[in-house]
Amino acid sequence: MDKVINCFSKRPDAAARLICFPWAGGGSIHYARWGNVLNSSTEVYAVKLPGRESRAKEPFFQSMQQIVDEVIGVLLPELKEKPFALFGHSFGAMTSFAVAETLKRVHNLEPVHIFLSGASAPYSETRINAPKRSDLSDEDFLKWLIAIGGTPPELLANPEVLKLFLPALKADLHIVENYRYNKPDSPLLSCPITCFDGKQDVPHDLQAWKDISSGDFTVRMLDGSHFYLKESENEKIILDYVTKQIETSEMDYL
To answer: What is the full DSSP assignment across 62-129?
Structure first.
């Protein structure tokens, strides 16, 4: 499990778990440190994908199914053991949804809450008509990266680091751009859904996520562009909100 999950703060007695999925090209550290910040009732698992961090020598995944199979294969015993919530930003929002959908359909397991950030629903027109970025040349790809913001300038200025970073980013974008999921005829889930987004990011079709669950649906817009959640003030707002929602769901679970 340690190969796939980064957990900074192991809490076997925690009442619930928060499983976090990285953005495209991202690692697990950003979310893993949430485990040191959230209160002791929640244990944080940050998903670590092949091709980065301690898995740098492994080939990148080619499809969403590979991510879903690995995460569920590793986590199923833990997910059956106690309540869990899912959090994902951008590419991570799509992977967390794909995992939730399979857990429900195959194992009849459901999160107590899904937190989706910076992404349109997979079946929304906004997303289907979005231009494909993973096929761009490195030069055009970099221009696009700079335009959306959030990539540290020191990274963009360092060709050696970029050479390591771009393949992971492109591999993840390839997966998400080729992931298809039709709009459900009826909600698959019953848990609450919260969508976060940056006010200055390109508009996402957040409302379309409402169709995946019969539970409460909330949208929270915060100041900032695509990587608004990296800003400390926004991160505090998100973590306070996530903590409150998980604690509320624990009460319902009991």
So the answer is: -SHHHHHHHHHHHHHHHHHHS-EEEEEETHHHHHHHHHHHHHHHHH----SEEEEES---TTSHHHHT
Pick the CATH number of 5-253 from 3.30.1330.60, 3.40.50.1820, 3.90.960.10, 3.20.190.10: 3.40.50.1820
222-248, pLDDT tens digit by residue? Answer: 999 999 999 999 999 999 999 999 998
Tell me the pTM.
Answer: 0.94
Residues with a known catalytic role: 90, 226
Locate 93 and state its tokens.
């929002």
Taking alpha carbons only, the member of 106, 107, 110, 123 closest to residue 19 is 110
Continuous H helices in the chain: 29-32, 34-37, 64-81, 91-107, 125-128, 138-148, 153-156, 159-177, 232-253
How is the chain split into domains, by residue range?
Answer: 5-253
Query: Which of the four pLDDT bands, split at 50, 70 and 90, describes residue 166?
Result: confident
